Amino acid sequence: MADAQSYRVRFEPVGVEMEVAEGETVLEAAFRQGIAVMHGCKEGQCSSCKSRLLEGDVELLKYSTFALPDYERETDHILLCRTHAYSDLTIELLNYDEDLLRRSIPVKEYEARLLGIEALTHDIRRLEIELAAPLRFWAGQYVDITLPETGITRSFSMANPPRGGRSLEFILKKYPDGAFSSRLDGGLAPGDRLIVKGPYGTCFRREGHPGPLVLVGGGSGMSPLLSILRDHVESGEKRAVRFFYGARTRRDLFYLDRFAEMETELEDFRFIPALSHAGPEEDWTGESGFIHDVVKRMLGAEGLDGEIDAYSCGPPPMIDAVLPVLQMAGVEPERIYFDKFTQAVR
Ligand SMILES: Cc1cc2nc3c(=O)[nH]c(=O)nc-3n(C[C@H](O)[C@H](O)[C@H](O)COP(=O)(O)OP(=O)(O)OC[C@H]3O[C@@H](n4cnc5c(N)ncnc54)[C@H](O)[C@@H]3O)c2cc1C
Ligand code: FES
Q: Minimum-distance ligand to the CA of 48?
């Protein structure tokens, strides 16, 4: 034991060691010390941080049994984002990749102010904020934004590529009774103070892979995928790119002009929007159905050569449906990166 109030944690099989203080979760301790381990929601909802306790005593905060079913808890599985240590620990990371450990960026808190909000559809907004200091992040990552007067904190993925600057863009979906998002039309105004903490997330663009890039998203899942796409374009890498985007009806689509322009500019890029609830009056000639069915139908026929890197972001049921489809299409599980936009528990 390091001292009365903190314990040593050793991660296997990577052999990385760190300290965890009493009262903080193992995941919070990792963020504090700039050690990148797999995570998603940070709230016991998504299972991305699931690991196995090899040695030591722990207590778990409340979590969803969808993320950690009882039979897994009984076989010493834990969620790092819910785990408090009561002794030194040895933990086996079930999912880790060298890129993640190598590209870790320490999490910090930033003062910020709102620059503006723009309507992209009836319920999608583009938000721009300015930080007091530049934030380093990887394309596809997210931050936690807190509204200081209310203390409400929500996770939002950057839509802009990382350029080491102070301004960040987001694409947000508005929920009528959403504690945060219902304030997008009226409650929040340019100049308002915000607190930003990050960067978080492991669904970031992997560089230097020659194979095709497949992006699959729905709703505000556009945000991190757009960041990844813009970053890819700026990197100058030459890869085939397919962007499958699911929406309910035509009025939920946006940035179509932007993608049409990219299709003419980029060598091998296709944006494939699909509508799940298009009525006959919409005169929709594009793809129809849920996005996982469209990926199932089309991915094989796209004639993509090489090992695919796939990124998927959006509502959890969409991701749960997309992951097996990607695997059935031959994408290696370790080359599928995703972020489930789970609902906040606080
Ligand atoms: C890693 C991560 C990244 C995220 N990135 C983004 C992003 O880039 N853009 C974005 O818009 N959101 C993103 N989210 C979701 C976001 O953090 C909030 O959950 C969302 O904005 C709703 O918050 P709220 O306070 O408005 O609603 P809350 O007050 O939390 O919920 C109120 C009601 O709104 C509805 N609702 C809220 N969330 C959802 C949901 N996910 N699905 C279905 N119904 C819901 C439900 O009816 C709920 O009862 C992300 C979440 C995670 C975990
Ligand atoms: S369950 Fe731990 S990060 Fe989502």
A: 2
Flag whether pLDDT at 12 surpasses 80: yes
Per-residue pLDDT, 4: 56
Q: Which ligand has an atom closest to residue 177 CA?
A: 1
The C-alpha angle 98, 164, 341, rounded to 5 degrees, equals: 60
Same fold, 108-200 and 213-340: no
Q: Of 28, 31, 38, 49, which is best to mutate to test ligand 2, by the most ligand atoms within 8 angstroms of its C-beta? A: 49
CATH of domain 108-200: 2.40.30.10
The H or E element spanning position 338 is strand 336-340
Q: What per-residue confidence (pLDDT) applies to 215?
A: 98
Which CATH number among 3.40.50.80, 3.30.420.10, 3.60.40.10, 3.90.190.10 corresponds to the domain 213-340? Answer: 3.40.50.80
SS3 per-residue string spanning 150-167: CCEEEEEEECCCCCCCCE
The CATH number that domain 6-102 falls under is 3.10.20.30
Residues lining ligand 2, judged by CB closer than 6 Å? 39-42, 44-49, 67, 79, 81
Contacts 24+ apart (CB under 8 A), 226-230: 226/159, 226/171, 226/255, 227/139, 227/140, 227/157, 227/158, 227/159, 227/160, 227/161, 227/162, 228/139, 228/140, 228/204, 228/311, 229/262, 230/139, 230/160, 230/161
Nearest CA to ligand 1 atom 48: 178
96 confidence band (pLDDT: 50, 70, 90): confident
Q: Which residue has the tokens 């159905």?
A: 289
Closest Cα to atom 1 of ligand 2: 44
Whole-structure pTM value: 0.93
Kindly state the percentage of the chain with pLDDT values over 90: 85
